[in-house]
Amino acid sequence: MRLPYIADPPPTSTPDEAEILARVQARRAPNGILPLDRALLYSYPVADGWNSFIGAIRTKSSLTTVIRELVICRVAVLNGALFEWEQHAPLLTQGGLGDAALKVVGDAGADITAKVTEEVLSVAEGAVLRYTDAITKTVRVPDEVFEAVKERFNDREVVEITTTAAAYNCVSRFLVALDVGEKNH
């Protein structure tokens, strides 16, 4: 990483910091904190907000594991966030996405429409990948791309797909900029 990691366990100097650290550790249990946490904990308030926001996206949304992790993994690929990919691709596989579909997600230049036609991806998965691509690459989502997602997901799910893509664009940019996990430089 481009900065030294905070010690593990991280030192705390106030009761507020100790509470924040306990929340981060609780979300990561039973595996312990990640290098990402050891970078974020330079700023306890930022780590706390991050933990709460990303924790909600990861554990409190109504999205299926496949849809959530499809978005996260695609953002990782498009932004070159290898640490993020390594953390989330196994979750996508565990969620039930097949190997051929995982290869499509991992290929930033894949023809999503062709892979839906070939039934490597479902229509819903293809719509989510095109939507994630638009959010990540250009920010603006063409109407037809939005409508394809809106036809297959309810309003809450559309918001959760959108916030997942937005949040993990933030995550990937942090990971790549600081080279968290030593994967990007």
TrEMBL record:
Residues 46-102 form the Carboxymuconolactone decarboxylase-like domain. InterPro entries: AhpD-like, CMD-like. Signal peptide: none annotated. Pfam families: CMD (PF02627). PANTHER family: 4-CARBOXYMUCONOLACTONE DECARBOXYLASE FAMILY PROTEIN (AFU_ORTHOLOGUE AFUA_1G03690), 4-CARBOXYMUCONOLACTONE DECARBOXYLASE FAMILY PROTEIN (AFU_ORTHOLOGUE AFUA_6G11590). This is AhpD-like protein. The lineage of its organism: Eukaryota, Fungi, Dikarya, Ascomycota, Pezizomycotina.
